Amino acid sequence: MVKKQTVWLLTMLSLLIVLSVYYMTSPDSGEMAFIQDAELEQTTGNMNGDGTTDDTVVSQMSSDELFASIRLEMQNKRDKLEEQWSAVMASSTATIEEKAKATENLDNLQDRRTKENILEKTISASVPYEDVLVRAEDNGVHVTVRANELSKSQTREIMQMVYDEFGEVPVDVKFQPSK
Q: Contact, 13 vs 80, CB < 8 A?
């Protein structure tokens, strides 16, 4: 168990170092920006659960950059949580209950990441969308596909895939038009 945790911790630290070096050495062109959920909703078309479509606002960012920045922000946020929970687990002052809760949170986060990856691949395999972004959060699952349009049947199919993977949770399906 200790060996497994050590390998996991070293892997995460290596990933953090690689991402830090990449971030620091990448050219600062001003094009990358972290997008909050409210801004994402403004830059994407929204297909509601009932199949109606909200107005689509074209983003100043390319779809590739938008998806990449959202993934990076999500990764950074989760890495910080993992770091905190790992610190609690390694702490000599933490109680058994705190360590158990940290372990449970860490397991849930890893499970959420795995399910997101599986769902992204499953959705991409069913209909060849240019890109698929799945974000599982406490308030539900948000799915954004890069496509010029999304039919009601495609939306229902995506929602069913989410239910199959995550259970009965609120699902938000959106599309981001390609430029």
A: no
Nearest-angstrom CA–CA distance, 176 and 46: 8
Alpha-carbon distance of 133 to 145, in angstroms, equals: 6
DSSP bridge pairs for 137: 140
Q: Are 123 and 134 in contact (CB under 8 A)?
A: yes
Split at pLDDT 50, 70, 90, the class of 116 is very high
Kind and range of the H or E run holding 176 = strand 171-176
Nearest-angstrom CA–CA distance, 112 and 54: 28
- Which positions ≥6 away from 97 have C-beta within 8 Å? none
Which option is the CATH number for 2-19+32-176: 1.10.287.4300, 1.10.3470.10, 3.30.420.40, 3.20.10.10? 1.10.287.4300
Quote the tokens at residue 25.
Answer: 């050495």
Residue 101 confidence (pLDDT)? 93
Tokens of 41: 């909703």
**Do the beta carbons of residue 59 and residue 73 sit within 8 Å?**
no
Q: Phi then psi for 157, rounded to 5 degrees?
A: -65, -45
Considering the entire predicted model, what is its pTM? 0.61
SS3 (DSSP) at 149: coil
Phi–psi pair at 149, nearest 5 degrees: -155, 165
What average pLDDT does range 116-142 have in this prediction? 89
